[in-house]
Amino acid sequence: MALDEADIFVQFRRELHQFPEVSCQEVDTQRRIKSFVNPFAPTRLVELATTGLLLQYGESNEGPVTLIRADSDALPIQEINTFAHRSRIDGVSHKCGHDGHVAILARLASLLGQKPIALGRVYLLFQPAEENGKGAESVLADPAFAAIRPDRVFALHNIPGYEQGVIVCKPGSFTPSVLSLIATFEGKVSHSAEPEKGLNPAYAMADFMLKTRQIQHTDPGSDAFALITPVYTTMGEKSYGISAGYGEVHLTLRTRNAKRMEALTAQLVALLDDLATDSGLAIKTSYTEAFFANENNTDAYEQIKSSALKLGYTFVEKQEPFKWGEDFGLFTQHFPGAMFGIGNGVDSPALHNDDYDFNDNLIEPAARLFFDLIEIAHF
């Protein structure tokens, strides 16, 4: 491939980086992707899940159906990088590399445009709203997706801390179940000189936080893995004459699978019920941003490994799941498939760090790996 052709996809990635949009607001991102990939001659191009995009290649009902997905949303993080393609949107930036994932899928579209599908159909999904866990659900609920029953689904994520271009995968659980729990503590305000005439939630909240630390199991290699991370708390007002009467604790929960998540949430609810009984507070729980575990199908894992080795890439079989959640897990709950990682560089800042940036050198090798997975079944 000529150098100037490679630069097209690097420049596209950097354009996306400059104009990031958070989950469910990817209107301009959708427009940019649609304009960029349209020349690659998809059989069909459909907008779905409000700000998502689906490309179809091939139209035969004879043969397999493969879906490959990339996520497109950014994060509410202020970027501190000073390079030319830094984010132009205050307080928003691509700190998870979804701009790079989109560029990889765009490069794959260009490869498919050059070699028509002989058997079955291939779908390339540019999915919005991965970061808040709503994107995959929106795609699956969209009537435009209803008629598609993939035989195989694939996705990737760049992985800081691994050598550039190394392929990282494992059969079974690849990323965990993730769920955010919100506990509200309703008491009664009073004068801060007479706290006994009110009901302050502070000590019950503190007790709850400390006990969650005691019940977690932080070894990701264990089936009992349960990571509980406090992410936000609030209580009362900045008025020093008032004893607080209301508070909230927000936690993110991570487990190996849905069954373990059910057990953990039941344990936390029981703990809160006991605290409510002991304190007299009205304590309620709610949940948000649920991510299903990515369960890598064994055959799909073997296909990824085979293609990586065929292309001469270094392949690493991870022994335990990653600890971050990924809503591609909802696809692997419905269809056989797998997600793999590709090394972003040993010295790369971590995901969601304010100085992170996607490694452009991954675009071509990642697209070639996806293309090989397609070529095996569709040509």
Automatic annotation (TrEMBL):
Keywords: Hydrolase, Manganese, Metal-binding. InterPro entries: Amidohydrolase, Bact_exopeptidase_dim_dom, Peptidase_M20, Peptidase_M20_dimer. GO terms for molecular function: hydrolase activity; metal ion binding. Residues 180-276 form the Peptidase M20 dimerisation domain. Its cofactor is Mn(2+). Mn(2+) binds at residues 96, 98, 131, 157, 352. The Mn(2+) ion enhances activity. The keyword Manganese applies. This is Amidohydrolase. It comes from Spirosoma radiotolerans.
